[in-house]
Amino acid sequence: MRLFLRRLSGPSGSAGPAVLYVHGATFPSGLSIAHRFDGRSWRDALCDVGFSVWGLDFYGFGHSDRYAEMDAPAEANPPLCLAEDAAAQLAAAVHFILEHQGLSSLSLITHSWGSMAAGLFAGAHPTLVDRLVLFAPIARRDPRRYALHPDGPAWRIVSAEDQWARFVEDLPPNEAPVLSKVHFDDWARRYLDSDPRSRSRNPAGVKTPSGPFVEILRAWHGELAYEPARVSAPVAILRGAWDGLVTDADARWLFDAFSHSPVKRDVKIGRGTHLMHLETMRAALWRESATFLLGDDVAAIPV
Questions:
Q1: Which residues are registered as beta bridge partners of 265?
Q2: C-alpha span between 134 and 131 (Å, rounded)
């Protein structure tokens, strides 16, 4: 099977230090770090300060090949694209990028469940990861008494309406929207375009591997898919103040669990939810990620 990587270099076209984006559970890199609102994306902001920015689509997402099991009934197979599988895909992408650019290491930016695949990779290959930005990362929570072990089908359908619900579910009462309906409608059209068969369904929806969703539930039942203590790279936890999936307690647990990271940050940004990279506070997120990735070489960072 074939994996899809996208790349954008800085204005000069030269290949600067590399950063690879690792997407979350329901939509690929083209709809996250590479998606432009009013002509500008997170990827553009990072390129402007000298990075060569790459985005990976895991199998079953975006422009990468689909698992053969996605053509079978969902209940016929176990959840697809669990973190161990995704970490192997991430390793293939990292080795390709390093060879292509003649580098010995790169940095990673992850969203949500993507932190699990990246955490597995960074723990197993410490010399290949410079810095690790965890945007809205999922943490381990104590298991609930008598709760069944979370499991699920191989895949599921996620509609545009499902995505809109995610954008508004954590918004406090009487607060102004954090994503305009005009921006969302454009994003949703492109989201449905990511699956050629999406509009043949009623309602229209994207067929998505269920492994990431199942692993988020497992993390909240005491089974995080990686060990943060194995990661030795500097780590930044970036999150929105209104993120219902990453509470203050979750961030505290993760911060402490990265016990071998020489530099750690926990940055909470106001008026942001779990999808802040697509919301009105996205520029603040972009700025914080660039600041951390630049380390001691921080200059003026356009957004």
A1: 236
A2: 10
| CA separation for the pair 245, 254 (Å, rounded) | 13
Cα 279 to Cα 115, 149, 174, 177, 198: the distances in Å are 20, 34, 17, 9, 24
Distance from C-alpha of 172 to C-alpha of 178, rounded to nearest angstrom: 11
Q: Running DSSP on this structure, what letter comes out for residue 296?
A: T
| One pLDDT digit (tens) per residue for the chain, 303 residues | 999 999 987 665 557 899 999 999 999 999 999 999 999 999 999 999 999 999 999 999 999 999 999 999 999 999 999 999 999 999 999 999 999 999 999 999 999 999 999 999 999 999 999 999 999 999 999 988 777 789 999 999 999 999 999 989 999 999 988 998 999 999 999 999 999 999 999 999 999 999 999 999 999 999 999 999 999 999 999 999 999 999 999 999 999 999 999 999 999 999 999 999 999 999 999 999 999 999 964 444 445
Contacts of residue 87, Cβ cutoff 8 Å, sequence gap at least 6 = 117, 118, 120, 121, 124
Place of tokens 């209104």: 242
98 contacts: CB under 8 Å, gap ≥ 6: 18, 104, 105, 106, 128
Which residues, including other chains, have CB under 8 Å from residue 39's CB and lie 6 or more apart?
Answer: none
What is d(CA 94, CA 125) in angstroms, rounded to the nearest whole number?
10
DSSP 213-244: HHHHHHHTTT--SS-GGG--S-EEEEEETT-T
CA angle 131, 111, 48 (to 5 degrees): 60
Helix, strand or coil for residue 149? Answer: coil
Integer Cα distance of 51 and 290 in angstroms = 9
pTM of the model: 0.95
H helix runs in the chain, sequence order: 42-48, 83-101, 114-124, 160-168, 181-193, 211-219, 248-257, 282-294
Residue environment code for 103-115, b if the CB has 16+ CB neighbours within 10 A, otherwise e: bebbbbbbbbbbb
